[in-house]
Amino acid sequence: MTKYIFVTGGVTSSLGKGIVSASLAKLLQARGFKVTIQKFDPYINVDPGTLNPYEHGECYVTEDGAETDLDLGHYERFLNIFTTQANNVTTGRIYQSVINKEREGAFLGKTVQVIPHITDEIKQRMQLLSTFGYDIIITEIGGTVGDIESLPFIEAVRQLQWEMPDEDCIVVHLTLVPYLKAAKELKTKPTQHSVKMMSENGVHPDIIVCRTEQPLSKELKSKIALFCNVKPEAVIEAADARSIYEVPLLMQEEQLDVIVLKKLNITWFPEPDLTVWKGFLAKLLHPKSTVTIGLIGKYIELQDAYKSILEAFIHAGAINECKVVVQDVHSEFITPENVDEKLEGLDGLLVAPGFGLRGIDGKILAVQYAREKGLPFFGICLGMQMSVIEYARNVLKLSHAHSTEMDAGTKDPVIDLMEGQKSVTSKGGTMRLGAYPCKIQKGTLAYEIYGTEHISERHRHRWELNNKYLDALQQAGLKASGTNPETNLVEIVEIPGHPFFIGVQYHPELKSTVENPHPLFVHFVKAAKAFAARKDNLAGESLPNELV
Ligand code: GLN
Question: Which residue's CA lies nearest to atom 8 of ligand 1?
Answer without folding.
Answer: 353
